[in-house]
Design goal:
Layout: H1 2-49, E1 51-58, H2 63-79, E2 86-90, E3 93-98, H3 103-111, E4 119-123, E5 146-147, E6 151-158, E7 164-170, H4 172-184, E8 190-194, E9 197-200, E10 212-216, H5 221-231, E11 239-242
Antiparallel strand pairs: 1-3, 1-11, 2-3, 4-5, 4-8, 6-7, 7-10, 8-9
Length: about 240
């Protein structure tokens, strides 16, 4: 009997560590499975809270142009402090997944997704000098003399009158162009337009040095801020339209 008891004891002594090791690995596997399921549920919950904005490219596009557009949209959203978003490309469509945002930031974000942001400073033709901003048509303007390429920095601020203003600071080449433009065209009106919408048409009084243009006359600070957001990046190389939003 003593030999049998000793044999049983030795057998248990040999098996128990193996059994405990198996139990440990089974428990560890169950833990990681539960952890993965938890992360999956968390991810699904986060996805459910995302706002989906679908965009359609207009006209013929290629992969390079779509990727360039995607990068500009990413930069625009990052510039206004949006985090945790995704911009995905599917053929000629884009899907932007936005996190939950406060109303003001949400409106800023959505406004930046479809506007191209093309800036142009154009002389008003002499034949149209008597027309108001609302009466001016594209044919009334000369070809753009300054564009986004001439911008160095854009800032929403207050003008000399205390009203909302958009301050355009031009780079060295743009400042030189502006100085030549204003020196050669005293008394002419110059239209400052974004995406074809004329913001102001000031009359040139004399040469403007320093490369700074102040645009005033906005209805609100929010309007000036929106344009500042828009012009901080390069313009979109293609037109995007909202789809089913």
């Amino acid at each position: 009997m003593g030999n049998i008891a000793r044999w049983i004891f030795n057998l248990l002594f040999t098996l128990i560590p193996g059994i405990l090791l198996v139990v440990f690995f089974v428990s560890l596997a169950a833990f990681f499975r539960d952890l993965q399921e938890y992360h999956t549920l968390q991810t699904q919950a986060a996805e459910a809270r995302l706002e989906i904005v679908r965009l359609q490219a207009v006209g013929s596009v290629n992969v390079q142009t779509l990727e360039q557009t995607r990068n500009i949209l990413i930069q625009r959203l990052q510039n206004i402090g949006v985090r945790g978003f995704r911009v995905e490309i599917q053929n000629s469509r884009m899907t932007v997944r936005l996190p939950q945002l406060e109303a003001a930031q949400r409106n800023r974000a959505r406004a930046l997704l479809t506007r191209r942001g093309n800036l142009a400073l154009q002389l008003v033709k002499a034949s149209a000098n008597h027309r108001t901003i609302g009466q001016l048509r594209p044919a009334d303007l000369e070809p753009p003399l300054l564009t986004n390429r001439d911008l160095e920095r854009v800032q929403a601020n207050q003008g000399e009158s205390g009203r909302p203003a958009l301050i355009l600071r031009l780079n060295r080449e743009g400042a030189a162009k502006l100085a030549r433009l204003t020196a050669a065209n005293p008394g002419r009106r110059v239209a400052v337009a974004v995406d074809g919408r004329i913001l102001i048409t000031p009359t040139i009084r004399g040469p403007i040095a320093g490369g700074t243009v102040s645009i005033q006359g906005f209805n609100s600070q929010q309007e000036a801020l929106y344009l500042s957001d828009l012009l901080q990046t390069a313009p979109l190389p293609l037109r995007l339209e909202l789809v089913g939003n």
